[in-house]
Amino acid sequence: MGDAVKRIYAIDKPVVDIMLIDLKLPNGHGKEVVRKFQGLFPQIPSVIITGLDISSTELIQEGAHDVIRKKNMHSEDIPRTIYRAIARHQVRADYKPIRDELAGMIRDAKADSSKCCKK
What we know:
Distance between the termini: 56 Å
Low-confidence stretches: none
Strand order of the largest sheet: 1-4-5
CATH topology: Rossmann fold
Largest sheet: 3 strands, parallel
Mean pLDDT: 79
Structural class: alpha/beta
CATH class: Alpha Beta
Shape: elongated
Strand content: 5-15%
């Protein structure tokens, strides 16, 4: 396990709004850091900054909220991406209770329909 991942496990209560992670770390890989960080602190969005040739889709599936490519990076990219990741994460958090309630209603409706339609 790399030093970065060990340090993540040492965090008790994070006091950050966002995590910026470079994929190329001296003692580990940023993908592992994203996965562990999002597993421990799903309430905090993470953005990957990389010069490596790796799929953005793969990184987002690992838990990153966005990806900034170093070779195409402009000065306004980082603040814009940070703002977008925090805003998107906040919207998801705001709508989570509604999604959970809707999922419960659907589950209840399926249970009710299976009771009434059994022969």
